Amino acid sequence: MEERLKVLVAEDETILRKGLILTTDWKALGMVVIAEADNGIDAQELALKLEPDILVTDIAMPGMDGLELIGILSDQLPDCECIIISGHAQFSYAQKALGYGVKGYILKPIDPKELMVVLSKAAKEIYNRKQEREKDLELEQLRELSERFLPTKVSTTKDYRDQYIQKAISVIEQHYAEHLNVADIAEHMGLSERTLSNLFKDRTGYTFLEYLTLYRMRIATSLLQQKERQVGEVALLVGYKDYRYFCKIFKSCFNVTPLEFKKGEL
């Protein structure tokens, strides 16, 4: 169940304020009124404490007018959408309100249909903003996740054994899309399969197959971020002829399918 948007109503005329709160179908809008205030100072205090998603406010109020209130909240609660209800039709008021990013300027007496339209517009803005932020967060998480799966190269030391590891890693980086196994590489180096396997594990912390697989997955994440690349194509490019097996390995590493990764879904 989606959480309702929180609304704060600020209006010094009690009958108008109560009527607006009681007659508006907040539930249908996916909203709930969390507080009300009859002056600008109380409205500011409540807003900073409760952090509403939407503020519905009059302009002329005791203590602090609605425009001043909106100006303060635009700095301290930039995500709060503001809607003005007012008996003032002057262009200067509307112009100043627009400067603060106000989503609606409704003249009294309030037309319920107009209010519903403006509230719906504000809700859409809020949901769109939240979705964009969630997408940005998911993409950042996926980028961080893919970076963690890039095997670290063995550091250069004076140990002569590292030359074999560097050669093996070089083969992986140049030929990861081909059929590779530790036995063939060991034979090419004049080592036994067991010797190279043990040495590789000791110097990198991975088995040869683990390193190869993780390197392929890292390359796959880069390719999947290219819009023109299809998942099946990426599988072949990183050395997997079996599409289903590629998807299985990818999900075991990242806990998402290649397609979910490509769409930015976690």
Automatic annotation (TrEMBL):
Domain Response regulatory, first and last residues per copy: 6-123
Keyword Cytoplasm set for record: no
InterPro entries hit by this protein: CheY-like_superfamily, Homeodomain-like_sf, HTH_AraC, HTH_AraC-typ_CS, Sig_transdc_resp-reg_receiver
Sites bearing 4-aspartylphosphate, chain numbering: D58
Key words of the record: Coiled coil, DNA-binding, Phosphoprotein, Transcription, Transcription regulation
One Pfam family, short name: Response_reg
Coiled-coil ranges per UniProt: 120-148
Residue spans crossing the bilayer: none
Superkingdom, natural source: Bacteria
Entries under SUPFAM superfamilies matching the protein: CheY-like, Homeodomain-like
Domain HTH araC/xylS-type: 166-264
Keyword Plastid: no
Protein known as: Response regulator
Organism per entry: Sphaerochaeta associata
